[in-house]
Amino acid sequence: MNEKNDSHYFLIENYKPLREIVFEKLRDMIVNGDLRPGERLMEIKLAEMLGVSRTPIREAIRKLELEGLVVMLPRKGAYVADISKKEIMDVLEIRAALDKLAAGLATQRMTKTEKEELKKVLASFEKNFKLGNIEGMITDDIRLHDIIYIGAKNEKLQHIINNLREQITRFRIIYLKEIYRKNEKLLDEHREIVDAILSGDIEKAQKMAEEHIKNQEMELIKSLKF
C-alpha cells in the first residue's frame, strides 16, 4: 500500500467518527514531531495523505487550535504552534512538582509486580540507549514514568498529569530526538530514580525525580536557543 492507502485503511478500520480520527492523527503527528513547530498545515496535502476530504481536516485544525497546538494567522493559514520558553517553563515546573510527589508516593505504595515491571522497563531503556534507538527510548521513558504515577496510587494525581500528557510528550520527544547524544547523565538519572524507589529511599526518589525534570527544562531551553 502507498502512504495514502495505508492511512485510508487505518481510517476505515476505526469506529470513531472520521473527524475524531483525523484530529487524533494530526495531534499525534504534532506531538511526535512529524509536523514540526512553525510548519504550515496545508489542507489539500493533509487530505491527500490521510485519504479524506478537506472538511474533516479543517475541523481537526480548528480543534487543534483550541488545544493550543495550532495557530491561525490572518491571510496566511494554519501553522503548528511554536514552543515558547514560557510554555516549557510553565509545563515542566508543574511536572517537576508532580514527579517529585509521584516518586515519593510510589516509593511507599508500589506493588511488587509494579516494581518488577519498573526494573524491566529500565533494562529496556538501557538497551535502547546503548543502541541509540530513539523511538524505543521514547516508548520506554513514557512507560517508566507511567508506572511510577500508577504506583503512586493517587487517581487525582494521575488525572492532573494526563491533562498535560500531550505537552509533556511533545517536550519529551524533542528532548530525546534533539538533545540525545548518548548522554550518560540521562541514563544515570533514570537509574537513580528507579534505584531509590526500589530501595525505599523516599527523600532520594523525590530529589532525583525533581532534578531529572529540571535538567530536562534547562537542556530544552538551551537546545531551542531561546
UniProtKB/TrEMBL annotation:
Q: Per UniProt, which keywords does this protein have? A: DNA-binding, Transcription, Transcription regulation
What name goes with this protein?
Answer: GntR family transcriptional regulator
In the record, what terms sit under GO molecular function?
Answer: DNA-binding transcription factor activity; sequence-specific DNA binding
Sorted alphabetically, which Pfam families does this protein's record hold?
A: FCD, GntR
Q: Where is the HTH gntR-type domain?
A: 16-83
Key word Nucleotidyltransferase present: no
Q: Where is the signal peptide?
A: none
Q: Which InterPro entries match?
A: AsnC-type_HTH_dom (IPR000485), GntR_C (IPR011711), TF_FadR/GntR_C (IPR008920), Tscrpt_reg_HTH_GntR (IPR000524), WH-like_DNA-bd_sf (IPR036388), WH_DNA-bd_sf (IPR036390)
- Recorded source organism is Caldicellulosiruptor changbaiensis
